[in-house]
Amino acid sequence: MERSSHPYMAWKICIANQKGGVGKTTSAVNLAASLAVLGRRCLLIDLDPQGNATSGLGLDKSTLRRSIYHVLVEDDPLGSVILPTAVPHLSLAPANIDLSGAELEMVPLENRERLLAQRLAATPAEYEFVLIDCPPSLGLLTVNALAAADSVLVPVQCEYYALEGLSQLLNTVTLVKRRLNPHLKIEGFLLTMFDIRNRICSQVADEVRGHFQERVFQTLVARNVRLSEAPSHGQPALLYDPASRGAQAYLEAARELLVRHAARAEDAAPERKVHAGNVHAGKVDEGRVKEGER
Ligand SMILES: Nc1ncnc2c1ncn2[C@@H]1O[C@H](COP(=O)(O)OP(=O)(O)OP(=O)(O)O)[C@@H](O)[C@H]1O
Ligand SMILES: [Mg+2]
Question: What is the Rg, in whole angstroms, of the alpha carbon atoms belonging to the chain?
Answer without folding.
Answer: 18
